[in-house]
Amino acid sequence: MPAAVLPTGKGTARQVGTDESSPSEETGAVVQVKELGHLVLYVRNVERSAAFYRDVLGWEPLFPDAPGMPVAAFSSGRTHHELLLIEVGEGASPPPAGRRTGLYHFGLKVGDSDDELREAVARLQEAGVPISGASDHTVTHSLYILDPDGNEVELYIDVPGVDWRHDPSLVMAPIKPLAL
């Protein structure tokens, strides 16, 4: 396989991968993704956003303060960090509304049953967090909220007994209103 030429991010390129590596035998892909590792969000005010992800969504911060750096990192314990917030200042533009490219929303699993999703609704209401949507996706039951910077966050449970692995078409089932 010929060497790949990758950009360095500074307008130049470098060669990599001169070995005879081949695509994954399982999928034919060049790289085989194992899992979604983490998400990085730019935020206008890291203290405000960190409070939301910590106090409203219950994510554990990895460190109380990052000296000299306006950042916050969180982990559920699955890996070193699942969420990193980087402050860019109050003058930054919010995500544009409507159809656009880029991030639409990201999903966070909050339990395994509708009872746990009902508990999430009650806690969000107690905290004064508006729920902007609720959907039955057949494979998941989902609530939608906005973080302080306007990023949409899906809070969901996987519906017990739905075997999407044996029937992948269930993932694309029509979306229905959620009845909790």
How would you describe this structure to a colleague?
With 180 residues, the protein is α+β, with helices and mostly antiparallel strands. The chain has 2 domains: 36-91, Roll (2,3-Dihydroxybiphenyl 1,2-Dioxygenase, domain 1); 105-180, Signal recognition particle alu RNA binding heterodimer, srp9/1. Helix content is 13%, strand content 29%. The strands form 3 sheets. The chain has a 5-stranded mixed sheet. Strands 3-6-5-4 form a 4-stranded mixed sheet, covered by helices on one side. Strands 1-2 form a two-stranded antiparallel sheet. A hairpin with a 5-residue loop joins β9 and β10 (152-158). The longest helix has 13 residues, at 114-126. It is globular. The mean pLDDT is 88.
Furnish the topology, listing elements before pairings.
Elements: E1 4-7, E2 13-16, E3 39-43, H1 46-56, E4 60-61, E5 71-75, E6 83-87, E7 105-111, H2 114-126, E8 133-136, E9 140-146, E10 152-158, E11 176-177
Parallel strand pairs: 3-6, 7-10
Antiparallel strand pairs: 1-2, 4-5, 5-6, 8-9, 8-11, 9-10
What is the fold named in CATH at topology level of the largest domain?
A: Signal recognition particle alu RNA binding heterodimer, srp9/1
Question: At the first level of CATH, what is the class of the largest domain?
Answer: Alpha Beta
Average pLDDT confidence is 88
Class by alpha and beta content: alpha+beta
Largest sheet: 5 strands, mixed
- Architecture of the largest domain, according to CATH? 2-Layer Sandwich
Strand order of the largest sheet: 7-10-9-8-11
How do the SSEs run, as a string of H and E?
EEEHEEEEHEEEE
Helix-residue proportion: 10-25%
Described by the principal axes of the CA atoms, the overall outline is: globular
Low-confidence stretches: none
Strand content: 25-35%
Count of β-strands: 11
**How far apart, in Å, are the first and last alpha carbons?**
54 Å
Radius of gyration from the alpha-carbon trace, in angstroms = 20 Å
**Number of folding domains?**
2
Oligomer: single chain
